[in-house]
Amino acid sequence: MTTTAHRSNNPASLEHHSSVVGKRKTTPRRISSAVNIDEGKDEYIVYVVIPGMQRNDFGIRITEGLLIISADKQEALHCFGKKNNEKLSHWKETVELPGNADTVMTAAIYRNGELQIHIPKGERPITKTPVEVIVY
């Protein structure tokens, strides 16, 4: 009985069902994250929880005392009755660094949905030359 009611040719129930499916398929996905900054004896650590990424999705740059973390994620959007689209999601966070951050020795690791950026403390002045950080 339930199967027959579910397969009903009632136009009202079909319209409701297709609009729900349509909304699920066309809702844009945002990249969301949580950022935490910590200070140890010898380093600063920036923790970014951002699941579902790959290490090569990230761009990390240090310029003029700012740590700029960004990510781009290419996604396919599949729709019924329409041409499939690809969508690029973009995310960006900026952290102001303290004056004693040794930006040249910065290291980044992405593992299990968490990006960790380790910035040693040092006596070098912050360089004006931009530093690209590789994510391991």
Primary descriptors:
Immunoglobulin-like, 136 residues, alpha+beta, four-stranded antiparallel sheet, disordered N terminus
C-alpha Rg, in Å? 23 Å
Q: What's the number of helices?
A: 2
Query: How many structurally independent domains?
Result: 1
Helix content: 10-25%
What CATH architecture do you see?
Sandwich
How many strand segments?
A: 8
Structural topology:
Elements: H1 2-6, H2 11-26, E1 34-39, E2 43-49, E3 58-63, E4 66-77, E5 85-96, E6 107-111, E7 114-120, E8 131-133
Antiparallel strand pairs: 1-2, 2-7, 3-4, 3-8, 4-5, 6-7
Verbal overview:
By secondary structure, the protein is of the alpha+beta class. The protein has a single domain (29-133), classed as Immunoglobulin-like (Sandwich). The protein contains 2 helices and 8 strands. The strands form 2 sheets. A 4-stranded antiparallel sheet has the order 1-2-7-6, with no helix packed on it. The chain has a 4-stranded antiparallel sheet with strand order 5-4-3-8, with no helix packed on it. β4 (66-77) and β5 form a beta hairpin. It is elongated. 15% of the residues are buried. The model is unreliable at 1-28 (pLDDT under 50).
Summarize the entry for a quick read.
The chain has 136 residues and is α+β, with helices and mostly antiparallel strands.
